[in-house]
Amino acid sequence: MTSKIKELPEAIACRGISVRTTNNAEISHDTAKLGRLWQKFYQNHAGQLPEGEDIYGIYHNYESDDLAGAFDVVASWKTAAEQNAQSDSDSKASTSNVVEVTIPAGKYLVFSEEGHMPNTVMNAWESAWEYFNTADCEHTRTFNVDFEHYIGGNLEYGQVDVYIGIEQTD
Q1: I need a labelling partner for 169 at 20 to 30 A (CA). Which of 83, 97, 139, 159 fits?
Q2: Three-class DSSP category at 58
Q3: Model pTM?
Q4: How far apart, in whole angstroms, are the C-alpha atoms of residue 142 and residue 165?
Q5: At 49, is the secondary structure helix, strand, or coil?
Q6: Which value, in Å, is the radius of gyration of the alpha carbons in the chain?
């Protein structure tokens, strides 16, 4: 696992499908929603993206800065203005549950892992939680937007970078 600070110079507009969940709900197979979200995304949307298209898992609308609070997760892809206009003309059936969300420009602490999913992404999040729970942690989470960046769009095996929004220290 490696971590580094990265400045995202521009916001990234994305579209995808969303669920609201909690970390506690994700512990139990009966109440977990993220696996089903990604399965639905893989079945209904991933195949329509260009080969190698980056995929984003966006965490936002945090109820609190407590790990027990609820939050939204959007399994998504990057869009451009032209793509948004084209998507609006697509059939209502395929886009009726699609939401738009923007990853804001700003400072992020990035935790990178490579391997088989979903274990790889879970390991990256575990590293992030461990880092932010240490007594001598140098950064403060914003709890605004965090995101997973699946490099090359591979949801089975590959590299994932988990971006955790941190406060500016200027």
Answers
A1: 159
A2: strand
A3: 0.88
A4: 5
A5: coil
A6: 16
